[in-house]
Write a structure and sequence with these properties.
- There is one protein chain.
- With 473 residues, this protein is mainly α.
- It has 4 domains: 1-19 and 34-71 and 391-419, no CATH class; 75-210 and 372-378, 2-Layer Sandwich (Bacterial polysaccharide co-polymerase-like); 221-367, no CATH class; 421-457.
- The chain has helices at 2-14, 39-48, 50-70, 86-104, 106-120, 122-133, 136-146, 148-151, 157-166, 188-208, 213-246, 251-282, 288-308, 332-370, 391-417, 424-439, 444-471; strands spanning 75-81, 168-172, 179-185, 376-378.
- The protein has a 4-stranded antiparallel β-sheet with strand order 2-3-1-4.
- Strand 2 and strand 3 form a beta hairpin.
- Helix 3 (50-70) runs antiparallel to helix 15 (391-417) and helix 7 crosses helix 10.
- It is rod-shaped.
């Protein structure tokens, strides 16, 4: 093996150098020589050092295998959403390929398709969804919902957002427009939960920031309903209080009933007066029957006067007194004006409230139609297979890297060894090496640590030897 290596080195020495001029003449003996390694010589050198390469590649494979199996498994859950506005633009979207074919074939098809899609606004809503998903409002809600700050071991919310963004991939299909949200996590259940939370918070934010005409109409009607409701409650309370204080249950019907009652009282009074006149002709004034008939006539007259409001002053007695059970006929018109006004206001409030309630429900339905809701095509399922790491690829890449580094080392060592000592590059490199070593490896701190390390190794070695001697028979 040594003979073969020396033969390769001799071949390198004999190889042409890179110090010849343009005219083919040498530059002199004092000029540094740099050997030119041909591919054949490099291959020969690697073959000679194949055992060295094999050991280095094997070590690289072992290290990369250890690293690959130490890496935790990652799982990816994906949610797919239908293109926004799919129902409105589906018919036109189906007609786009025919338009492209009529426009002139394969070369112009992509341009016509893209132009038509942009004119229809089919891509704008998808990009809007992507922007909303990547917004701070949605990301903060997802972090709060699932407690991702403790999961990512982050102290600040900004760092948690960066971790979430690095684990999330959002893409839009170029032909279908389907929006895909992929989330990667160490736990498959958490990856699926984050992907689903994105959709929930996306719809919530879209409903909150909606600025459509139906939304503005719904907000206006909602505020108007609150005002009408408060006013209606106040009017109803005032109407009930007025009716309770004045015994005004139903003024129109109450007036009819009181007129009929007054007529009945008047008829009874006339009958009683007739009976009293008849009794006075037969008996004296002190007779019991005459006195009883007189008392009945007086009571009927008093009730008739009270019923009719004979002693009521319209300018002063517009409301019912505390000792009165019901209003008189003379008070009814005065009470009826306010009663009818309050009744009219209550009825108007009820009619307006009913009308606004219907309009409010219609506006809510229209707003729900106009909100760009994310329709889930494929909900995120708990992944069963890991998405990374690809251990075989890592191991093979590590082995290849070990082979490349070992090969570069061998070629560089051979070229360095047979480079002339007068080469300026070699002189500079040696000078840099000596300077770095002087300020690092040869410092007092490094020497002291090396001595301490040697003593520690020697102590452990001596202890191991004594223990082995004690255990041996």
């Amino acid at each position: 093996m040594r003979d073969v290596r020396e033969a390769v080195i001799t071949e390198i020495d004999r190889s042409p150098t890179a110090d010849t001029g343009v005219n083919g003449l040498g530059r002199g003996e004092n000029q540094a020589r740099t050997p030119a390694l041909s591919p054949l010589i490099i291959i020969d050198l690697l073959w000679v050092e194949r055992s060295f390469l094999f050991r280095r590649v094997l070590a690289a494979l072992l290290v990369s295998a250890v690293v690959a199996f130490l890496l935790p498994n990652h799982y990816t859950a994906t949610t797919r959403l239908m293109p926004p506005g799919y129902g409105a633009n589906s018919a036109m979207a189906l007609a786009l390929p025919a338009i492209a074919e009529r426009a002139g074939g394969g070369g112009s098809e992509g341009g016509v398709m893209g132009l038509a899609s942009q004119l229809l606004g089919m891509n704008t809503s998808g990009e809007l969804f992507v922007g909303v998903i990547q917004s701070r409002a949605v990301e903060d809600r997802v972090i709060e919902r699932l407690g991702l700050m403790s999961v990512y071991w982050d102290k600040y919310r900004e760092d948690a957002r960066k971790h979430l963004e690095s684990n999330t991939s959002i893409s839009i299909g170029s032909t279908t427009g389907i929006l895909s949200i992929s989330v990667t996590d160490k736990k498959p259940e958490r990856a699926a939960a984050i992907a689903k939370a994105y959709v929930i918070e996306l719809n919530q934010v879209l409903s909150e920031v909606n600025s459509s005409s139906a939304h503005r109409e719904r907000v206006f009607l909602e505020e108007r309903l609150q005002e009408i409701k408060q006013r209606s409650d106040a009017d109803a309370k005032e109407f009930a209080l007025f009716a309770s204080q004045n015994a005004a249950v139903d003024i129109p019907n109450q007036a009819k009933a009181m007129v009929a009652a007054e007529a009945e009282l008047q008829s009874q009074l006339i009958v009683a007066q007739s009976e009293l006149q008849g009794l006075r002709q037969l008996y004296t004034v002190g007779n019991a029957r005459v006195r009883a008939s007189q008392a009945r006539v007086d009571e009927l007259r008093r009730q008739a006067n009270k019923f009719g409001g004979k002693d009521v002053d319209p300018a002063k007695d517009a409301s019912l007194a505390n000792d009165e059970l019901y209003p008189s006929l003379r008070q009814l018109p005065l009470l009826g004006v306010k009663y009818l006004d309050l009744y009219r206001r209550a009825k108007i409030d009820d009619a307006v409230f009913e009308l606004l309630t219907k309009e409010y429900e219609i506006a809510k339905l229209q707003e729900a139609k106009e909100i760009p809701t994310a329709e889930v095509l494929d909900a995120a399922a708990v992944p069963e297979k890991k998405s990374s790491p690809h251990r075989l690829t890592i191991i093979l890449a590590g082995g290849l890297a070990g082979f490349l580094f070992a090969g570069v080392y061998l070629v560089g060592r051979a070229a360095w060894k047979h480079t002339d000592d007068r080469n300026p590059g070699k002189i500079l490199a040696q000078d840099v090496r000596c300077t770095v070593k002087q300020h690092t490896w040869d410092t007092r701190f490094c020497r002291r640590n090396r001595v301490a390390l040697r003593k520690l190794v020697a102590r452990f070695t001596d202890a191991a030897v004594e223990k082995q001697n004690d255990t041996s028979p």
